[in-house]
């Protein structure tokens, strides 16, 4: 007969209830106790029957993280931080890449139970408030990113508009007067782009600089190739800009590549500012000035909020919370020079 | 009463068996039929009971992809390609980041059933052959990477030793005579590093160049910061190298950053070669010459192998297969100049 909860409890010298708490991934077990139970589980080769446990309404110890795209380094870094933060709760994180597609995001939200997960951390691109209302699944969810504000679940984000404004104020403070923007997007769901554009416009106005719509370049996606092409279009103008604020670091790295290809000095002739503070920009040539959203903190807060929700009686659940994380400017060679 | 299979079948005008095939994620359902069934499922709000289905031994339509680290762009790109390839089978891919830790890899292999997945694509760092033998879970698995050869499951990889040799032969062909290597690792499990080092040594010998162990720099990990530090150590020597082969692109991008910081011209004074062909190196300054492993093809093959195994009678399963994918050299500015 395979070993049971009772055997594990006997070996670890704890109650069956404690073993069950560990197995189900509950948070409030002392680390020493958890380690002892884990040892006994390993030694005996105890294997909880997840399917049966799920039918009984237990916990799987698994959470899901749904992101638009892992090939965007920002999301890959965010995923890494969330996996780290989840370790403190002994959770396994399964990552689901949605590509921002409505259908996949909808399946995710409506089909939560299918994957036997305890909770979901979700950075939506396509779905907005109504679509996200807790379905019958009732699985706790924490939202990330700019798509949804005051939605049906806890939400962690930075103030994008203010952060974009800070980036533009830095460029204006260096004496730049023709500050372009790369990263506008037409579709109404592109909230990130809209907020960063709003911050750009507000900061220009504050600094007494005119808003010139022809200096704002729209992109299909936030990748290096889009930034490179957008920068080429700006340089082809009769009156090219003396600075450019890119709505993410990949766009900025692509823009810098075009500038160097054309023999334009960065930052002497054109200063470049990114957004995200991905690792690439710390080692690029020139290194990239950018907005740092404190991604590690966002990840920790999201995981801790989810843990709180899991410990909560659903009948007495607190109202959804909005947490704003501080951003900082990381100023490097692409605006300050060497 | 919630809608059942019967209701979905009636609405879609298909048999109950067909609805069940769609719900269970089987591959051989005509796209038109699948769409009709999906429509009926959506319209009726039918929700299959995954836990019950799992106990009956059905399929979840979910596969897992286990990778060491998503913050390594190579793995993030690989994950993206696997998600794409899995779409053709209408599979959802859940990604599990192992950080290459023995314990997490072991849990993954022994606890496959816990997450109700149909199959696993796994790039191990810690586990080797014996640990990977199909456990009681019996879930089909495809292995990626260099850690395991002729193991208990299908395996897709490139010929690392040959690829590393090609990189070094390219540098020697440019007339470089003091070719350093960055990326050696001491631990016996670091098969990737060992194979690339073996390729480096073999190519040096073929090209009639002496092997100088002091030109081989060991690193803790394959990140930009390791490459930057290793390059600094090489430049501090009385007789610095005139070329460097880095065991991945991140090491190479870090090395280039150090070279430019020290005012060393790339490639005129030191040529730099990477490995992986991640997107970063196509936009860096200088752009990066590298070995391209055709990651998209690796992903497609892994997914197709897994699909074959899922369609197979376990009692008549074919022996594990080894598939080798071709690599190519992508030659750019870091060795050829502008």
Automatic annotation (TrEMBL), chains A, B:
InterPro entries: HTH_LacI (IPR000843), LacI/GalR-like_sensor (IPR046335), Lambda_DNA-bd_dom_sf (IPR010982), Peripla_BP_I (IPR028082). The lineage of its organism: Bacteria, Bacillati, Actinomycetota, Actinomycetes, Micromonosporales. SUPFAM superfamilies: lambda repressor-like DNA-binding domains (SSF47413), Periplasmic binding protein-like I (SSF53822). It comes from the Bacteria. CDD domains: HTH_LacI, PBP1_LacI_sugar_binding-like. PANTHER family: HTH-TYPE TRANSCRIPTIONAL REGULATOR GALS, LACI-RELATED TRANSCRIPTIONAL REPRESSOR. The keyword DNA-binding applies. This is LacI family transcriptional regulator. Pfam families: LacI (PF00356), Peripla_BP_3 (PF13377). It comes from Spirilliplanes yamanashiensis. Gene3D superfamilies: 3.40.50.2300, lambda repressor-like DNA-binding domains. The keyword Transcription applies. Keywords: DNA-binding, Transcription, Transcription regulation. One of its GO terms (molecular function) is DNA-binding transcription factor activity. Residues 3-57 form the HTH lacI-type domain.
């Amino acid at each position: 007969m395979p070993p049971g909860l009772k055997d594990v409890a006997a070996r670890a010298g704890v109650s069956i209830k404690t073993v069950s708490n560990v197995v189900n991934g509950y948070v409030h077990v002392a680390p020493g106790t958890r380690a002892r139970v884990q040892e006994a589980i390993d030694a005996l080769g105890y294997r909880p029957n997840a399917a049966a446990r799920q039918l009984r309404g237990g916990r799987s110890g698994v959470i899901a993280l749904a992101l638009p795209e892992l090939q965007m380094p920002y999301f890959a870094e965010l995923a890494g931080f969330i996996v780290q933060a989840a370790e403190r709760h002994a959770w396994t994180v399964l990552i689901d890449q949605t590509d921002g597609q409505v259908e996949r995001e909808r399946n995710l939200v409506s089909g939560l139970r299918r994957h036997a997960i305890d909770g979901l951390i979700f950075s939506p691109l396509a779905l907005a408030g109504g679509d996200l209302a807790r379905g019958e699944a009732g699985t706790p969810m924490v939202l990330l990113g700019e798509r949804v504000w005051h939605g049906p679940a806890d939400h962690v984000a930075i103030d994008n508009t203010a952060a974009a404004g800070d980036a533009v104020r830095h460029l204006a403070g260096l004496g730049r007067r023709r500050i372009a923007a790369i990263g506008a997007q037409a579709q109404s769901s592109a909230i990130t782009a809209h907020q960063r554009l709003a911050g750009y416009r507000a900061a220009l106005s504050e600094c007494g600089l005119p808003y010139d719509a022809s200096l704002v370049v729209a992109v299909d996606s936030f990748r290096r190739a889009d930034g490179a092409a957008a920068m080429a279009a700006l340089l082809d103008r009769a009156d090219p800009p003396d600075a450019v604020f890119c709505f993410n670091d990949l766009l900025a790295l692509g823009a810098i590549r075009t500038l160097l290809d054309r023999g334009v000095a960065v930052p002497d002739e054109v200063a470049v500012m990114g957004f995200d503070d991905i690792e690439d920009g710390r080692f690029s040539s020139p290194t990239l000035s950018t907005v740092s959203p404190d991604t590690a903190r966002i990840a920790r807060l999201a995981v801790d909020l989810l843990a709180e929700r899991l410990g909560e009686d659903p009948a007495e659940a607190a109202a959804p919370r909005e947490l704003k994380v501080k951003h900082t400017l990381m100023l490097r060679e692409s605006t300050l020079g060497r």
